[in-house]
């Protein structure tokens, strides 16, 4: 894909979504796409390889967050299970004044992200190798974030234990989900409550070029997470709340 075509697709779709854009965002996403394709051939970072698919299923799917939320400058955001940086690093490119922590349990993805962050020249963003269960018990990270975002990581009853311990009281967890979220929500309600959260709203969102339904589930942190959560590594998945 030529750069001109890339810019036209992005500009048209961002306008359709009601989102702003500037040269820095277009430049950053162009670099991101090309570096992702280059490194993906070596390290298998994502199954989505075509340019238009990357734009739709990675970039626009990440940026749909901003159709419903306007974080204050300086807000701290944690992206749990970020993979190749989605949605957290794309969100950082859109709103550079956010403080973003990208967490993943695979070192090869963190290595990729660190190289990409350096190439993009970004500040106030860190890629961290670790497991949610371990990091969630560390004072440095526990209940320190304004937003936690997560995309395609785990069902809600497990995902809530991975993520809610990181949120300050009053903070928001925003989970990117497909049309089968209702069953997950039924199974995850108890876990969300135990961990100090409350379902606030479900946003149905539209992403140009994506036919499947997309939803943002917002969980508000209404009280501190009990100290025993998250449980030890592997337990949330083996014995969901």
Could you explain the architecture of this structure?
This protein is an alpha/beta fold. The protein has a single domain, classed as Vaccinia Virus protein VP39 (Rossmann fold), CATH 3.40.50. It contains nine helices and seven strands. Helix 7 links the parallel strand 4 and strand 5. Helix 1 runs parallel beside helix 3, helix 2 packs antiparallel against helix 5 and helix 3 crosses helix 4.
Query: What are the secondary-structure elements, in order, as H or E?
Result: HHHEHEHEHEHEHEEH
Strand content: 15-25%
Mean pLDDT: 96
Kindly report how far apart the N and C termini lie.
46 Å
Strands of the largest sheet, in order across it?
Answer: 3-2-1-4-5-7-6
Largest sheet: 7 strands, mixed
Question: How many separate helices?
Answer: 9
CATH top level label: Alpha Beta
- CATH homologous superfamily (4th level) name: Vaccinia Virus protein VP39
Number of domains: 1
Q: Whole-number radius of gyration? A: 17 Å
Q: Could you say what the CATH architecture is?
A: 3-Layer(aba) Sandwich
Q: How many β-strands, per DSSP? A: 7
Query: Low-confidence segments, ≥5 residues, pLDDT <50?
Result: none
Based on secondary structure, the structural category is alpha/beta
Global geometry: globular
- Percent helix, as a range, is 40-55%
What is the CATH T-level topology?
Rossmann fold
């Amino acid at each position: 894909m030529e750069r001109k075509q890339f810019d036209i697709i992005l500009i048209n779709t961002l306008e359709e979504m009601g989102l702003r854009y500037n040269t820095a965002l277009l430049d950053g996403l162009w670099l991101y796409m090309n570096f992702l394709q280059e490194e993906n051939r070596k390290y298998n970072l994502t199954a989505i390889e075509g340019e238009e698919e990357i734009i739709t299923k990675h970039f626009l799917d990440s940026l749909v967050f901003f159709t419903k939320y306007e974080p204050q400058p300086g807000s701290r955001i944690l992206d749990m299970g970020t993979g190749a940086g989605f949605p957290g690093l794309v969100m950082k490119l859109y709103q550079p004044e956010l403080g973003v922590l990208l967490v993943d349990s695979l070192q090869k993805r963190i290595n990729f992200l660190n190289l990409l962050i350096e190439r993009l020249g970004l500040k106030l963003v860190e890629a961290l190798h670790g497991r949610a269960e371990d990091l969630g018990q560390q004072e440095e990270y526990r209940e320190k974030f304004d937003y936690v975002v997560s995309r395609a990581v785990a069902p809600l009853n497990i995902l809530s234990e991975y993520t809610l311990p990181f949120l300050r009281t009053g903070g928001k967890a925003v989970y990117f989900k497909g049309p089968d979220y209702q069953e997950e929500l039924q199974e995850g309600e108890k876990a969300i409550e135990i961990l100090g959260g409350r379902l606030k709203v479900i946003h149905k969102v539209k992403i140009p070029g994506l036919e499947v339904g997309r939803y943002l589930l917002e969980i508000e942190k209404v009280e501190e997470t009990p100290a025993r959560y998250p449980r030890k590594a592997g337990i949330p998945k083996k014995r969901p709340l």
